[in-house]
Amino acid sequence: MASLPGVSVSPATIRNDMAALEADGFLVQPHTSAGRVPTDKGYRLYVDHLTSTDVAKAGRLSAVSSQRLGDFFDSAHVRLEETLHRTSLLLAQLTNYTAVVTGPSVSEAVVRSAHVVSLNDRVGTVVAVLSNGDIESEQIDFATPPSEMHIALANARLNETLVGKTLGQAPFEPRHGGSDAGVDAEVEALVGRAVAAVSGGHSRDSVFVGGTASLTTSFDAVEVVRSVLETLEQQYVVVSLVRDMLSRGVSVA
């Protein structure tokens, strides 16, 4: 560390400062052979001292930034994915930092309603509205052109199967018995395809990154910037890291 550009103190001074920060609870040494890493208190100190042209030192937004936030939420009436994407961009603009926003977990959301919509005689769309505000939609093919009655019966059966369950916990078991038992084989087949499509095609947890260009001012080495950007592109890794931090009670904002 003493050899880094801009550092003009001796190694002994650095060791003394590190020891003082550790004693005050800002750094911790996980084990004797490890380096020191920031604690929650250390991260909090860093975040509290972040400054930019739009964010005041006391953490209060300027009048212009407050107006931008108000306008943003007044117009936030689009799909969840688009709202989260815009949120990451807005955070990046307000802070001049790269912003990472993770969406709610799809695997834990339950279905509130589900519908099959006929687009033509051969193609339809199954739409599921989830409790986290997300909307899952998948295209399905019709074996035979469905009538309006078949669509209505299929939607009733589809909601009976999916509502109140997660997409991963809604296995479909077709009814048997024929028309004499009040079972329509075409409806059962249609519902089976709809459940399979929306359950198998639901998106994984997503991450939205705004202000990635800000990273270029934080690193001198091109390879380091490339490595960070490649990590951000691996959405599953980023979501896992963020959720792991939250599960351990780590909070920096």
What sequence of helices (H) and strands (E) makes up the elements? HEEHHHEEEEHHEHH
Give the DSSP E fraction (strand runs of 2 or more residues): 5-15%
The share of residues in helices is: 40-55%
Q: Are there runs of 5+ residues with pLDDT below 50, and where?
A: 52-56
- Give me the Rg, rounded: 26 Å
Bulk shape: elongated
Total domain count: 3
Structural class by secondary-structure content: alpha+beta
The number of helical elements comes to 8
What's the rounded overall pLDDT mean?
76
DSSP strand count: 7
Distance between the termini: 28 Å
Tell me about the biggest sheet? 3 strands, antiparallel
Q: Within the largest sheet, what's the order of strands?
A: 4-5-6
Describe it for me?
This protein is an alpha+beta fold. The chain folds into 3 domains: 49 residues, Winged helix-like DNA-binding domain superfamily/Winged helix DNA-binding domain (Arc Repressor Mutant, subunit A), CATH 1.10.10.10; 97 residues, no CATH class; 92 residues, Heat-inducible transcription repressor hrca homolog, domain 3 (Enolase-like, domain 1, 2-Layer Sandwich), CATH 3.30.390. The chain is 42% helix and 14% strand. It is built from 8 helices and 7 strands; from the N terminus they run αββαααββββααβαα. It has a 3-stranded antiparallel sheet. Strand 5 and strand 6 form a beta hairpin. The two termini are 28 Å apart. About 2% of the residues have low confidence.
Short account of what is shown:
The chain is an alpha+beta fold. The chain is 42% helix and 14% strand.
Present the secondary structure layout.
Elements: H1 11-23, E1 27-28, E2 37-38, H2 40-48, H3 63-74, H4 80-95, E3 99-102, E4 111-118, E5 123-130, E6 135-141, H5 148-162, H6 185-200, E7 207-210, H7 222-233, H8 235-247
Antiparallel strand pairs: 1-2, 3-7, 4-5, 5-6
Helix pairs in contact: 5-6
